[in-house]
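Good morning,

Attaching, inline, the backbone tokens for the sequence recovery test we're adding to the shared suite. The designed sequence is right after.
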């Protein structure tokens, strides 16, 4: 199965089992907007809990807030979004399709990397044990030429983006002979700037309504509350403020399912520090966040850091944590050193003093900020793609979502073997003993095999079967999702067993002991 086929299957599976639906589907949907179904919302809530607790509970110097989506319009002037929150767009005149010009070039770069990787693999097979990859990369003329061209284009793109030189971006697209994936032609328009913020009006028109924006990031809600939290929480630098909430961007190209949406959710943490300390904290948060991802057990090789070529207007260092999706390595999270750009500008634009008196140094200053910013929906996509597994069994195939148990939407399914002989009553008793602590399902319909398949498809870690023996000795069978192994345990033991396996404790321990 190709990665593309796998991705299509994942999208279909997500819909079929109530994870993700296209928004307002009965009206044919709304582009790049999605709804979470009954399974999706549980998964998403668990991801949010994993993030929130790892920030606010594991770090005694981080607190949370929940700021409004609407903010005073001056906020977005101060943050630079009114002036600079733009993407370069380009249209293909034949297909009438619109693209992000930088993404077209990035895709071309990724293709060159694939070409090189293929050559390396071929050579590895040819030379066997004695293969020296570094030497091959240096000396093979075809590879050396591809690498040289790739690096030149990469450098030109980074410079053009930094200089906002759109003519040069267009020239790169022409020089690389990039074609529109739909029409296959190179009939491109000029490259233009496009602001990604959604506008709306607040107040009635008669009163003279004001234009406001739907926030394109949650961070500014934290910056404008810096003094409120610092003072009321008696916070001492270094300290952080965490927040989870919706953000909105009028993305030019919205593709790849929930990877790029126009309404999405972010989990952001801004960490306030002394000026000059930023590189130390930048490295700290890079390591902390990477270990948060890796604790989920999706494989060390599926992650990498990707440092930014173009630093955003606010940053002096920035990297992405990328995950290898079925469509390649892509950004899931950003770690940015934002200097005093935001607080400094809010001080300027609001006329309020936004400073911290440091009792240790006896000085007042505008704190520096290192932030970690992750998209909830991209994280959902990461978990879905890492967990989706097709297995061939002796008599049939199964699709099983191998979610880390702490993230699984449903933790346990309680299944009476038959619908009579007092088994449903006992099964309800088991269900009631678990429901205060966990999302569980009770299911008595169809054969036990079919019921197992249904639970596999939504990734339930435990199926608990109540049979005739259960009535005699108050034991049940517990079937483990991944191994399908079954064990017999007493009903009294169940809550402890399940609690141990589905708790976040194991994940947190890995982060703390990294
Ligand atoms: P990209 O380069 O993919 O457009 P970005 O660098 O603009 O993303 P940030 O502004 O750093 O993204 O936002 C932080 C995080 O928010 C991203 O790492 C991503 O997980 C998430 N995010 C950003 N834009 C979207 C979107 N349109 N849909 C879903 N998640 C998003």
């Amino acid at each position: 199965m190709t990665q593309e086929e796998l991705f299509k299957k994942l999208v279909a599976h997500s819909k079929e089992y109530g994870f993700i639906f296209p928004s307002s589907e009965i009206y044919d949907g709304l582009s790049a907007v999605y709804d979470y179904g009954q399974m999706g919302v549980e998964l998403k809530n668990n991801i949010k809990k994993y993030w929130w607790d790892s920030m606010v509970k594991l770090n005694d110097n981080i607190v949370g807030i929940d700021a409004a989506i609407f903010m005073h319009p001056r906020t977005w002037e101060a943050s630079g979004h009114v002036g600079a929150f733009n993407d370069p767009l380009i249209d293909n005149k034949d297909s009438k399709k619109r693209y992000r010009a930088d993404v077209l070039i990035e895709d071309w770069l990724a293709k060159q990397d694939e070409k090189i990787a293929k050559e390396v693999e071929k050579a590895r097979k040819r030379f066997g044990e004695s293969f020296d990859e570094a030497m091959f990369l240096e000396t093979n003329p075809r590879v050396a030429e591809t690498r040289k061209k790739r690096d030149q284009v990469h450098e030109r793109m980074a410079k053009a983006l930094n200089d906002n030189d759109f003519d040069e971006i267009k020239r790169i697209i022409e020089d690389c002979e990039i074609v529109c994936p739909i029409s296959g032609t190179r009939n491109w328009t000029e490259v233009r700037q496009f602001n990604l913020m959604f506008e709306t009006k607040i107040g009635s028109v008669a009163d003279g309504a004001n234009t406001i924006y739907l926030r394109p990031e949650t961070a500014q809600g934290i910056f404008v509350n810096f003094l409120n939290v610092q003072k009321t929480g008696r916070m001492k630098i270094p300290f952080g403020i965490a927040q989870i909430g919706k953000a909105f961007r009028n993305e030019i190209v919205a593709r790849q399912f929930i990877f790029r949406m126009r309404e999405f959710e972010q989990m952001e943490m801004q960490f306030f520090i002394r000026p000059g300390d930023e590189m130390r904290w930048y490295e700290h948060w890079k390591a902390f966040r990477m270990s948060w991802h890796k604790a989920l057990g999706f494989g060390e090789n599926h992650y990498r850091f990707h440092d930014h070529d173009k630093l955003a207007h606010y940053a002096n260092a920035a990297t992405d944590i990328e995950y290898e999706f079925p469509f390649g390595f892509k950004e899931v999270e950003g770690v940015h050193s934002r200097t005093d750009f935001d607080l400094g500008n809010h001080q300027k634009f609001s006329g309020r003093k936004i400073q911290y008196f440091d009792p240790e140094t006896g000085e007042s200053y505008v704190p520096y900020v290192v932030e970690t910013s992750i998209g909830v929906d991209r994280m959902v996509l990461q978990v879905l793609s890492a967990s989706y597994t097709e297995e061939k069994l002796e008599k049939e195939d199964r699709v099983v979502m191998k979610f880390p148990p702490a993230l699984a939407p449903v933790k346990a399914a309680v299944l009476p073997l038959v619908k009579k002989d007092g088994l449903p009553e006992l099964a309800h008793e088991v269900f009631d003993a678990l429901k205060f602590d966990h999302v569980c399902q009770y299911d008595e319909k169809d054969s036990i095999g079919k019921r197992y398949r249904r639970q596999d498809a939504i990734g339930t870690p435990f199926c608990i079967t109540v049979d005739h023996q259960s009535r005699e000795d108050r034991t049940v069978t517990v079937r483990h999702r991944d191994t399908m192994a079954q064990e017999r345990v007493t009903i009294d033991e169940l809550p402890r067993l399940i609690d141990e396996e589905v708790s976040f404790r194991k994940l947190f321990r890995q982060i703390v002991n990294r």
